[in-house]
Amino acid sequence: MTPRGPGSLSALRLANRQRLLLALTGAEAVSQAELARLTGLAPATISGLVRDLVDEGELVVRQGVANGRRSRMVERAPVPQRYGMGIDLGRTHVKVVAGADPGEVLTESSAGLAGGLRPDSVMEVIDALAATVRERAGLTADQVAGVAMGVPAPIDIATGSVTETAILPELVGFPLRDEVSRLLGRPVVVENDANLGALALGRRAGAAGRSVVFVKVGTGIGAGVAVGGELLRGDAGAAGEIGHLALDPGSSAVCRCGRRGCLETVGSAEAVRSALSSALQRELGLGEVLGLIGDGHPVAVHVLEDAGELLGRGLGWLAMILDPAEIALGGPLIAAGDAWLRPVRQGFRRAVLPGVAARTRVVISPLGEDTEAVGALVAAHIAVEKRTHKQDVNA
Ligand SMILES: [Zn+2]
């Protein structure tokens, strides 16, 4: 086994190195003598390789006991934890979370958007929240491998900006992805928020290969669809904008898209708030509305039931096209629990064929109010993996 040149020497070294790492993968710490036996390599070769691999951060060595004798025990270094940041932008609030992959929220911080959705005030709030979250999680900016941001509007994936003029007019044309990336000094992915929710649910254990829909019911209504863990975005990122299904074209309610009877004018959280405000003849906040529903206020419960049933009907249309395994609900009305879910299920059953009604589970998202944020962490993780993979391929 005399090496004939630098090329074959490094090839041999590489093979030995892989043999050693393989022997330690998934194993407990072993002594160097045991490692020599496991790999068939000479003790001197093992010593040299271990020294190099410790320097490279692949292995750790500590004092231990093997066969009753004090020995240097070798094991694989723990995989360095990779952190991501998720940003959930709503019409009236921003939430920023930090988490370790694959999507567990470690800490979060949120704030209202006092300056509305003007790009400069949005950026200011994101900057402050990101700093708070990094501090709470004990992370430097460099330790955040990637950032993903959810926005309640269709997104042009190529440019990371908002495309639909009627839904989030304040941010159309603003290079959201590039500006947030410049602000935080990290790579950023911008995605529709309902899509992020679908990604979180579609990548759960047990969801493999299934179609899962996440419906975000807030000021507007948007649906994200994940099929086999992959998002169905449509050609221009506008798939799932069910808030603008004209459920009742003869309605007097004019939507912000200019048409009448859109689902969001009757089935959104904002629709519930506004209908209850006019019924009780005073302007209510969403928090008060949820309080009245929780207290079983009969007028509030009626308004919620009407909205829930119409939402369920809209979801039925979606299910007749997609035949998903599960439709999970998110947004502030999940706080109303069964009082909301019951009428949604009823509207759904009336809108679909019996087979679809029997098969499709309509539930409140098991990830609760963290659904979109967990999805953002998952998206950040996927983006980091893709970048790493690209670097490997280019190397
Ligand atoms: Zn509309």
From TrEMBL:
> Can you tell me which family this protein belongs to?
Belongs to the ROK (NagC/XylR) family.
Instruction: Note the InterPro entries from the entry.
Output: ATPase_NBD (IPR043129), HTH_MarR-typ (IPR000835), ROK (IPR000600), ROK_cs (IPR049874), WH-like_DNA-bd_sf (IPR036388), WH_DNA-bd_sf (IPR036390)
**A single Pfam family, by name?**
ROK
Name the chain's protein: ROK family transcriptional regulator
Gene3D superfamilies, per the entry: 3.30.420.40, Winged helix-like DNA-binding domain superfamily/Winged helix DNA-binding domain
Q: Where is the HTH marR-type domain?
A: 19-70
Q: What is the lineage of its organism?
A: Bacteria, Bacillati, Actinomycetota, Actinomycetes, Jiangellales
Q: Which domain of life is it from?
A: Bacteria
